[in-house]
Amino acid sequence: MENNHEFSDRPLDPLPLQQDPTFEQEVQRLHEYTVAARWVLVLLLWLTVGSFSLWALRSDIRLLSEHFTWASLRYALSLRYNPMPAIGLTFTVSMTVAVLVWQSRNILFGMPPAERSRLEQQLLRIRQQGQSHPLHSWIVQSPRLK
What is the pLDDT of residues 22-59, one digit of tens each? Predict the structure, then answer.
């Protein structure tokens, strides 16, 4: 009996597709787009929240460049004195560090099985939805895969 994923209502079974070489390439391509999307998010955060936070802290940064002390840095980034710039800068830096750690872990230790399974399930949903999914033309019908 043929397993037709496009028209079935039952849960998707990724086991037969894992042997397919194009499936592996598509999972890798989906992972590459996930990495790119995370870096685009970090870039947008730096261009918006990060730049506004740094602009709000410009007088403190000027003072720090002339007379740096750890106390003045702590005071400039305190939530009591500059709450919004401190929160914005902390959020932007933490997102950057999170993406760096996530990508470094994937490079050094490989993709964890849970993440691999999530990507496979997402790819199966993209394939099942077909051309109406926004990523279908980039992931499934990519000219690089053919």
Answer: 888 899 999 999 999 999 999 999 999 999 999 999 99
Q: Is 144 exposed, middle or buried (0-12, 13-18, 19+ CB in 10 A)?
A: exposed
Surface-to-core class of residue 27, CB atoms within 10 Å of its CB (0-12 exposed, 13-18 middle, 19+ buried):
buried
Element (H, E) at 50: none
Greatest distance between any 2 Cα atoms in the chain: 76
CB 1 within 8 A of CB 93: no
Phi-psi region of 130 (alpha: psi -120 to 50; beta: other; left: phi over 0): left
Distance (Å, whole) CA 141 – CA 79: 49
| Spatial contact of 18 and 120, defined as CB atoms under 8 Å apart | yes
Structure tokens at 146: 């053919």
Q: Find tokens 């895969």 and name the residue.
A: 145
Residues 130/6, Cβ–Cβ less than 8 Å: yes
pTM: 0.77
The dihedral through the CA atoms of 1, 23, 9, 6 has a sign that is: negative
